Every structure is written in structure tokens, then in C-alpha cells.
């Protein structure tokens, strides 16, 4: 019974991690791993998904290039 509880928590935490920012996602996936350990379930095929690659181009500036203040 307790194993199912922790297994369910791990699933819910992973679902939240899918929608979270990279920092929070990492922490949620860590928490899910701890719940898996408590439930006695190991997820060998479920490797942590890589974080999205950061944007390399800077966002467009809202300032004009004329140099006027």
C-alpha cells in the first residue's frame, strides 16, 4: 500500500517537472527519485531528460540605434 502511494507521488512530481523551469525541474526530478527509492521501484530506463539548450541569440532590443536619449 505504501509503495503505491510513493509511486503515485513520483508520477505526479514528474508531471509537474515537465511544466517547470529548469531549476525547479531538476529539484522535482530529484524528489521523484527519492519517492521511487521509498517505493522500492527503480526506473533504469527513465533517465533524466536533458535541460533545454539556452538561447544563443540575445532578445531584440527595444531601444533604437540612433543614440537619442
Q: How would you characterize this protein structure?
A:
The protein has 69 residues and is mainly alpha-helical. 51% of the residues lie in helices and 0% in strands. The protein is built from 2 helices and no strands. The protein has helices spanning 2-18, 22-39. α1 packs antiparallel against α2. It starts with a helix and ends in a 30-residue tail after the last helix. The relative contact order is 0.17.
Features:
single chain, 69 residues, mainly alpha
Radius of gyration: 20 Å
Mean pLDDT: 79
Strand content: under 5%
Uncertain ranges: none
Helix and strand topology:
Blueprint: H1 2-18, H2 22-39
Helix pairs in contact: 1-2
Short description:
The chain contains 2 helices and no strands. With 69 residues, it is an all-alpha fold.
